[in-house]
Design a protein that fits this description.
By secondary structure, this protein is of the alpha+beta class. 23% of the residues lie in helices and 24% in strands. The structure holds 2-oxoglutaric acid. The site of 2-oxoglutaric acid has 11 residues, from strand 6, strand 12 and strand 13.
């Protein structure tokens, strides 16, 4: 069981995030990481570039994680029992890469309303200030949507390089995690992450996001899977879970889902980025 305690839930509501939450032991996390690295060796393009999106549609590994009971327990504490898995992104920062993530709110450009949803971010490596952990701006979710400037920065790992300006550096908090630990963050909390300055990979799997069944997609089409509970609203098309890894029919479906996702992410944009 990994339901949040009353104190953790209160912290999340007050600050817009909660971490760390213990999901997997370090040994379990190491086994998951080895499974990922075997996949990367066998199929180097499987989960990179645009294919970093919705990796849970094509791999048994990320499917199992996205539907894992301990993660769903924590998520249930925040959004209630009727949980839909509505997307995922694998965020890897290689030691030699300059990737960073500018200050942003997940709710900008994602079209999920109302805001009964949460992003869950699982560490599959050590995640530290040195290797590019996320930083949160506590309590920044209370004022709703903020202006973003679309920078399309070369090393920015966000779709448009969307950036909230003037984040107070003295208020931000690093989210350091051990392998197997999770953080949850609110759709409106401002967050970002820096370069990997270490010699190690930084590996994070974001389920982006878990949505309540009452959450609609107002900019386009998404597909969902039932995480837990029921879907009395029926807003979205449900899709089956993969029965293996990198099967042709799952890849075709993932590509279709990612194309639909791009229409959402770049809705109204003047140009398209790398992801
Ligand atoms: O992986 C990162 O550094 C940031 C990911 C992120 O912004 C998110 O999951 O919302």
């Amino acid at each position: 069981m990994a339901h949040l305690t009353a104190e953790q839930t209160e912290f999340y509501q007050e600050n817009g995030y909660i971490a760390p939450i213990n999901i997997f032991t370090e040994d379990e996390a190491q086994a998951l990481r080895e499974e990922l690295e075997a996949l990367e060796r066998d199929n180097p393009d499987a989960v990179t570039g645009k294919n970093r999106n919705n990796v849970h549609y094509v791999t048994s590994l990320f499917d199992r994680i996205a539907h894992h009971d301990r993660i769903l327990d924590a998520v249930e504490s925040v959004i209630g029992r009727n949980i839909l898995v509505a997307g995922s992104t694998l965020f890897v920062k290689e030691p030699e890469q300059k990737g960073f993530i500018s200050w942003h709110q997940d709710a900008r450009y994602i079209g999920l309303e109302p805001y009964n949803w949460v992003t869950a971010w699982l560490a599959l490596s050590n995640v530290t200030t040195e290797n590019g952990c996320m930083y949160m701006w506590p309590r920044s979710h209370h004022q709703g949507q903020r202006d973003h400037v679309d920078t399309y920065g070369e090393d920015n790992l966000l779709t448009r390089g969307q950036t909230v300006m003037n984040v107070p550096e003295d208020e931000i908090v690093p989210i350091e995690l051990k392998p197997g630990q999770l953080s949850l963050h609110h759709p409106w909390v401002v967050h970002g992450s820096g370069h990997n300055l270490s010699g190690e990979r930084r590996i994070g799997f974001a389920i982006q996001s878990y949505i309540g069944a009452d959450v609609d997609q107002v900019l386009g089409k998404i597909y969902v899977q039932q995480g837990r509970g029921e879907d009395p609203f029926g807003y979205h098309e449900h899709t089956p879970r993969p029965q293996g890894t990198m099967r042709d029919q799952d890849i075709m479906f993932r590509d279709q889902a990612n194309a639909a996702l791009q229409e959402i992410f770049y809705h109204g944009a003047e140009k398209r980025g790398k992801y």
